[in-house]
Design goal:
420 residues, alpha/beta, 3 domains, five-stranded mixed β-sheet, 16 helices, GPI_mannosylTrfase
Length: 420
């Protein structure tokens, strides 16, 4: 999202440049600023923006809006140099490895070495057929507004100025096997801008004919429905963090043996679903000097955390002996004597219920095997209770028996060592 802020400002600069009259003696500064911001964000935050820089640069160069010596080279060099001067010293300090350029390291590991596929592979058309429709949410934007903006002579040129480089970026990035919607989030403001041009064309003509009036009403209805859908999806998406839920439970309920040191291990799924540095619990205040702590200072901590991913180390029984608590997706992979203390459930899909079909429990009661008596007041349980109450209010009276049920399944187990 840091990169998203820069890419959005770059798009704003580009639109301002498009609105500035072109002349052979005065080059709009907006083009140079656009490429500078995208390059800087790519160097510091997200390496995939290099492809977006390439598509915009190529399009602007082909359409003769920019030249290599006057805009491309100065903007690219400035963005790269400033970005490297910012990221290399700071990240090298925090990682205690010099010189370190994190985005190049991630790009080399995921793209050059091809390890991104280890996180899952999606078909080539995933972004166009799945990710973009879900990100846009309102189907009127891409089924009605964008086509009208392109077909309409008054808005066609500026719409294509955005659509061609944006969709080219999505198409090129689709060749990478591993796909996630966050990799293409930068294109949404541009697509929304084009859709807004089409929507404005319809709305300003709503009094001219019955067709425009009906289309305008459909736009208003689609906005209201999209708002309702996004609110529901917000609640559902909050159920995607069982790792954070399990870690919160750990810190809230491990009260016995206070004063001792605990070693905690997180597996991949836990780290992907809510476990962050912000949820870690340490004794005493934390500062940026923690990266330089001595072993003596570290020994005074109440909690220590580990998220080793090396497959060979995970197969070593001695590796697991040093941990007191493990957050794991698959307990059978954790070597040693362990007991399941807590199970965090997560979202696993939805099911459409027909009239007369009974709904089940959206959240299976969270299983607490040990420690203290636990009343389920977790966030998933609260969402489930709210969803059940909403079902009672709206299913029969408004939706005539139809309903959408949230399905949950066990995601992260909190395991306790037998020696604890």
């Amino acid at each position: 999202m840091f990169a998203f802020a820069f890419s959005t400002m770059a798009l704003r600069s580009l639109l301002n440049a498009y609105a500035t009259p072109w002349s052979s003696t005065a080059v709009p500064k907006g083009y140079r600023l656009t490429l500078y911001l995208l390059t800087f964000a790519g160097v510091v935050f997200r390496s995939e923006l290099a492809i977006l820089v390439g598509t915009f640069t190529s399009y602007l160069f082909v359409t003769r809006r920019i030249s290599i010596p006057r805009i491309i080279i100065p903007a690219g060099l400035a963005g790269a140099v400033v970005g490297l001067l910012c990221t290399v010293p700071i990240d090298s300090f925090f990682w205690q490895s010099f010189p370190l350029w994190p985005e190049w390291t991630a790009f080399y590991y995921n793209t050059v070495l091809g390890h991104s596929a280890d996180w899952g592979v999606s078909p080539w058309n995933f972004y166009f057929a799945n990710a973009l429709p879900r990100l846009m949410l309102n189907p009127a934007t891409y089924l009605l507004c964008i086509p009208i903006a392109v077909l309409n002579t008054a808005t066609r040129r500026r719409s294509l100025d955005l659509l061609i480089p944006i969709l080219s970026f999505v198409g090129l990035y689709s060749f990478l096997p591993h796909k996630e919607w966050r990799f293409i989030i930068y294109v949404i403001p541009g697509l929304t801008a084009v859709a807004a041009a089409g929507a404005a064309w319809i709305w300003t003509r709503r009094g001219k004919s019955i067709i425009y009036a009906l289309l305008s009403l459909s736009l208003v209805a689609s906005v209201l429905l999209s708002f309702a859908a996004s609110t529901a999806l917000l609640a559902i998406s909050s159920l995607n963090y069982p790792g954070g839920e399990a870690l919160h439970f750990l810190h809230s309920h491990l009260t016995h043996g206070s004063g001792r040191h605990y070693n905690v291990y997180f597996d991949n799924l836990a780290c992907q679903t809510g476990v962050t540095r912000f949820l870690e619990n340490h004794h005493g205040s934390q500062t940026i000097l923690d990266v330089l702590e001595t072993q003596g200072t570290l020994a005074k901590r109440t909690w220590s955390y580990d998220k080793t991913e090396d497959p060979e180390m995970l197969l070593d029984p001695m590796f697991w002996q040093k941990f007191d608590i493990v957050l794991a997706e698959r307990p059978e992979k954790v070597i040693g004597r362990w007991s399941t203390v807590y199970v965090a459930y997560g979202y696993s899909g939805v099911r459409v219920l027909k009239p007369g079909e009974k709904s089940g429990s959206q959240v299976v009661p969270l299983d607490v095997v040990g420690w203290e008596t636990f009343t389920d007041t977790t966030w998933p349980a609260k969402v489930a209770n709210a969803w059940t109450m909403l079902e009672g209010l709206a299913r029969e009276s408004v939706l005539r028996g139809w309903w959408v049920e949230i399905k949950m399944e066990p995601k992260v187990r909190l395991l306790e060592s037998g020696s604890l």
